[in-house]
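User: Can you model how N-carbamoyl-L-aspartate sits in this protein?
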Amino acid sequence: MKNIISANQFKKSEIEKILSSAVLMEKAYKKNKIKPILKDKIVACIFFEPSTRTRLSFETAALKLGAKVISAENALENSSAHKGETIEDTTKILCSYADVVVIRHPIAGTLDKAAKVATKPLINAGDGANQHPTQGFLDLYTIKKEHGRLNNLNIGFGGDLLNSRTLKSLVPFLRLYSGNKFYFISPKQLELPREFIKDLKENEIAFEELRSLDEKLGELDVLYMTRVQKERFANEKEYNKAKDLFIFKKEHLKKLKKNAIIMHPLPKINEIEREVDADPRAAYFRQAQNGLYVRMALLCYSLGL
Ligand code: NCD
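Assistant: Here's the modeled complex, given as structure tokens:
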């Protein structure tokens, strides 16, 4: 039994195995020849925060592999959490019903608490602004598929870096590969937490912090845009001040390398102009599709299969 709580828990060898398993899942999926490896298993998906892709791709992954799914969306309202039940008690109960438990929660660190009492594999589907390791895996898979490598890349992250849990899972993966350089592009109020930057410095990871999207656009192999995370702001006024500061526009495409890709975990709101979607370098819908294969691989990994 293996929990998936944080990107930081994984060694490179384990990451490589999971990515290879996802390649096999994609091949089987495309040939319509998926083996029902999870037959007789029950996967619980309990989401205390909104989700489209993460929950539905986990559920599809489980069903494709022959598992059955029990699920609670809007669990802050629709589960006993609404009555005041602790995450520990909820987790114990879920583990007594299901074989794998996938949880998303608005509070950072909740999955660590749940892991202390879990008796079945636990998968973090996003905890506050902290971690989103399965998104990190699907982002890594996408970069490898699109560029054919995970090293010697210039990767720019644009937008709300302070609150992006997907960045905080992808960067720990990418820094395991040599020759990568990160460009963190955000307004001051949405910059990465200083302890994250301190850790990069201490580990001699190559990076720059920039305040303008245009500055290094021509050098990037990957531009990873993020949504301004409205739900993490203290109030609407603060959100409104930040929400339109960084927009990737159609005219930016001219500056981008021919083989660069634009990624986004989705949902996107204003941060990428609609016209950009039609450019072949816009990889975000392909990225979301990859989530299915990667989550099939991760469900098997968590069960030791
Ligand atoms: C992301 C998330 O929930 O952190 N979405 C996702 O899982 N694909 C990004 C976001 O909500 O902005």
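A couple of observations from the model: The mean pLDDT is 97. The longest helix spans residues 12-30.
User: Helpful, thanks.
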